[in-house]
Each structure stands twice: as C-alpha cells, then as structure tokens.
C-alpha cells in the first residue's frame, strides 16, 4: 500500500564510544603527532609553529565534519520505497526488491555470518558503521546503518547478493510495515 506521507523509523543512537573513538582517531592522535613534531623541532623557531597551523586547522575542521556526519541517520518508508540516510550515503530500495520471507531481526553477536566485513565505501568507527561493506562468507555486499548489534533488521534482496543491515529502535515495526505492502 502506497502512502502519501513518509513513515519514519527511529534509528538506535550509537554508544558513547562511537564519537569518542572518532575524536581520538581523527583528532587527538593527529594533533598529538603534530605537537610532538613541533616540540622536536623547537630549535627551528617561529617558522615551524606557523608551518603546522594549517594542518592542525584542517584536522579540527575534518573532525567536526566527521562528527556532524555521524548524526545524519534516518530510515523512511514512502510509496513502496525504503530510503536510508547514513552519514554521506543514501540508499533507496523498492519493496519489490526485498526478500521479505527471509528478512529477520537478528543479533549480530550470534549471527556472525551477517556481520559486515571489509569496508568497500563506508564510514566506520568503534560502534558505528554506515555505507557499503562486503559480507563475510561470500554473501555479497551490504548497505549498513549500524549503531548497535543486538536488534538489527536484516533485509536481504531478492538477487541474493545484496543486503541491508539497520539498527532501529523498533526493527519489527519496519519489517511489519514492509510485509503489509
């Protein structure tokens, strides 16, 4: 059944480790390395300090951008199309492309074969994965929006080689909405 207004499904918030790990990896470690380089080259004087100003500013702007992107998370169902927004990625999938008989709410700690493997074009840090990933055991590829691993909606596509993995507050509600079409 097609709907005029989009039906939104709440994405689970990521753990505190997701932004903290991004701050450490993309901010603190590079800035600490620059500070160490500056300390080692203290004899070079004023020129060395100004030489690191641009890279340090770039690191700070990049970190802010990455943290803001982590906040872009949405799942909507409208007119037979599922739209997933995850950081800088957007994926639209028609309900007719999904294998809803096999779709399940899974725990990725138990169903390890469904965990995303190598990142092919994605954004990932501790406790947060978004974008395109290769699946393990030759299952193909997955578009992920993962903020936790306990209640994940696994939506395989009919071709058997593409999957969606979504961390939602109420994953069964989306699955029920999809099955009603």
Automatic annotation (TrEMBL):
Transmembrane segments: 16-38, 50-69
Keyword annotations: Membrane, Transmembrane, Transmembrane helix
Keyword Membrane: yes
Superkingdom as given in the UniProt entry: Bacteria
Protein name: Bacterial Pleckstrin homology domain-containing protein
Species this chain originates from: Thermomonas fusca
Lineage: Bacteria, Pseudomonadati, Pseudomonadota, Gammaproteobacteria, Lysobacterales
């Amino acid at each position: 059944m097609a709907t005029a207004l989009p039906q939104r499904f709440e994405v689970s918030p990521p753990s505190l480790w997701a932004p903290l790990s991004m701050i450490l990896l993309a901010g603190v470690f590079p800035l600490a390395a620059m500070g160490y380089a500056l300390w080692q080259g203290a004899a070079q004087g004023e020129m060395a300090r100004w030489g690191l100003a641009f890279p340090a500013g770039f690191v700070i702007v990049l970190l802010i951008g990455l943290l803001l992107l982590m906040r872009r998370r949405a799942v909507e169902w409208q007119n037979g199309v599922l739209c997933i927004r995850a950081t800088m990625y957007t994926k639209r999938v028609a309900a007719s492309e999904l294998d809803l008989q096999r779709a399940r709410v899974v725990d990725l700690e138990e169903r390890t074969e469904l965990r995303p493997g190598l990142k092919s074009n994605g954004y990932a840090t501790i406790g947060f994965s978004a974008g395109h990933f290769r699946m393990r055991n030759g299952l193909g590829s997955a578009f992920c929006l993962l903020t936790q691993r306990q209640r994940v909606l696994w939506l395989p596509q009919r071709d058997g080689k593409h999957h969606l993995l979504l961390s939602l507050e109420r994953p069964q509600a989306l699955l029920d909405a999809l099955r009603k079409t």
